[in-house]
Amino acid sequence: MIKSLADLEVYHLSFQIAMDIFKMTQAFPKEEKYSLTDQVIRSSRSIAANIAEGWGKRIYENEFKRHLVYAMGSLEETKVWIHFSKSCGYIDETNLNGLMVSLDHAGAKIFTLVKNWKTL
Q1: pTM (2 decimals)?
Q2: Does the residue 72 lie in any domain?
Q3: CB burial class (10 A; 0-12, 13-18, 19+) of residue 6?
Q4: What is residue 118's predicted lDDT score, i.e. its pLDDT?
Q5: Does any domain span residue 25?
Q6: Alpha carbon of 41 to those of 4, 47, 84, 115: distances in Å?
Q7: Does 6 score more than 70 pLDDT?
Q8: Alpha-carbon distance 96 to 45, whole Å?
């Protein structure tokens, strides 16, 4: 039974993805700090933040689901920045693939939550 934000596996998964991306960007060139680095960190953090904000509004089913959809948008944006990171040579194919698998897994969980959530 889901009683708190801490009970949502997708929240923990998305939080971990954001932390993994933050650690990965520490090796990005300094000249990317206010562009690519900032964008990928902000979009990845927005996934977990939108899930949390929606949870806080869960009494209104449509509000919770709306924030889950926002989280999906941030997730897809994060994928784009990760692809830019690979194309710029800042991450390798292994890191790209690992992040994409994690993001796809989180996206599937968010989608399932949107589809199945019912406010009592």
Answers
A1: 0.94
A2: yes
A3: exposed
A4: 85
A5: no
A6: 25, 10, 13, 27
A7: yes
A8: 18
Percent of the chain, pLDDT > 90?
94
Alpha-helical (H) ranges within 1-120 are 9-25, 38-56, 61-87, 93-116
Mean pLDDT of 108-112: 97
- Per the structure, the count of domains in the chain is 1
Q: Could you report the per-residue pLDDT of 74-95, keeping only the tens digit for each?
A: 999 999 999 999 999 999 999 9
Residue 2 forms part of a structural domain:
no
The reply to whether 27 falls in a domain is: no
C-alpha distances out from residue 112 to 57, 100, 104, 106, 109, Å: 18, 18, 12, 10, 5
Residue 70 belongs to domain with CATH number: 1.20.1440.60
Provide the b/e sequence for 34-64 (b: ≥16 CB within 10 Å). Answer: eebbebbbebbbbbbbbbbbbbeebeeeeeb
State yes or no: pLDDT of 58 exceeds 70: yes
Domain holding 15, by residue range, is 7-20+32-116
